[in-house]
């Protein structure tokens, strides 16, 4: 099957040079492994991009599929990018499913992968195994391990949920760890927030500063007002 596809792609590259003209944007990309591709890497695709192993273009709008390899875009993507690996150096708007999905700038839409990483701001759904956002996250983050470094607004669901910046919303998991101010609800076996404004519900609840309610077997409030530690229920308002 792979051999037949390879032959078709090579034939397409050989008989369709008109697509690789002087225009900056082309409607079709056929590639084996860059630079063996119909449209040069510095040009953009608006339509369909198909590759066997590895393809590179500037901007892509439409559908980008790689058979057993990596989609790489040095600019922005608008549409669907699907492959074992997806690598977008600009912003992404749409759906990015893969084993490893990576976007360097802003992401708007749904990013999925066993490893899914966005370095910029994120709006939408990020799901999979290990999901990681460096910028401002607004939406739903769902995975085995979820991690945000910037401001977080929304829902985190996973086995381990980690937020490093200011957070507002809901954290549901076996372990919820907020290394900053958390406003909302944490529910899990172990809940930690540097500053908690809201409700912690779990077996063990820990915060350095509580403005709200803790319910669990062990509840620790580092501010010690009115109590530092209480079983079942602790509070400070």
Main features:
mainly beta; 13-stranded mixed beta sheet; 237 residues; single chain; 13 strands
How does this model look, in words?
With 237 residues, this protein is mainly beta. The chain has one helix and 13 strands; from the N terminus they run αβββββββββββββ. Strands 1, 2, 3, 4, 5, 6, 7, 8, 9, 10, 11, 12 and 13 form a 13-stranded mixed β-sheet that branches. β12 and β13 form a beta hairpin. It starts with a helix and ends with a strand. About 8% of the residues have low confidence.
Q: How are the elements arranged and paired?
A:
Blueprint: H1 2-15, E1 25-33, E2 36-37, E3 44-57, E4 60-66, E5 70-73, E6 77-88, E7 92-103, E8 107-118, E9 122-133, E10 137-148, E11 152-163, E12 167-221, E13 229-236
Q: Which range does the strand content fall in? A: over 45%
* Proportion of helical residues: under 10%
The low-confidence parts are 4-21
Distance between the termini: 66 Å
Radius of gyration: 23 Å
- Report the count of strand segments: 13
Mean pLDDT: 93
Main sheet properties: 13 strands, mixed
Total helical segments: 1
Which class do the helix and strand fractions yield? Answer: mainly beta
């Amino acid at each position: 099957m792979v051999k037949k596809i390879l032959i078709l792609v090579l034939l397409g590259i050989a008989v369709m040079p008109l697509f690789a003209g002087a225009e900056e944007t082309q409607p079709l990309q056929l590639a084996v492994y860059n630079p063996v591709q119909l449209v040069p890497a510095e040009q953009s695709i608006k339509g369909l991009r198909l590759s066997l192993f590895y393809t590179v273009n500037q901007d892509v709008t439409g559908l980008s599929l790689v058979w057993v390899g990596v989609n790489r875009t040095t600019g922005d993507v608008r549409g669907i990018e699907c492959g074992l690996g997806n690598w977008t150096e600009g912003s992404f708007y749409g759906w990015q499913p893969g084993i490893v999905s990576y976007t360097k700038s802003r992401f708007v839409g749904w990013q999925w992968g066993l490893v899914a990483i966005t370095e910029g701001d994120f709006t939408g759904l990020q799901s999979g195994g290990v999901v990681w956002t460096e910028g401002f996250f607004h939406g739903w983050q769902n995975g085995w391990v979820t991690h945000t470094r910037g401001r977080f607004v929304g829902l985190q669901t996973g086995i381990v949920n980690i937020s490093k910046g200011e957070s507002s919303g809901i954290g549901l998991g076996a372990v919820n760890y907020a290394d900053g101010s958390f406003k909302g609800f944490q529910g899990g076996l172990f809940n930690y927030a540097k500053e908690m404004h809201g409700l912690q519900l779990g077996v063990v609840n820990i915060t350095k500063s509580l403005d709200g309610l803790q319910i669990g077997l062990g509840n620790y409030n580092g501010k010690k007002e009115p109590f530092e530690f209480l079983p079942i229920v602790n509070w400070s308002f």
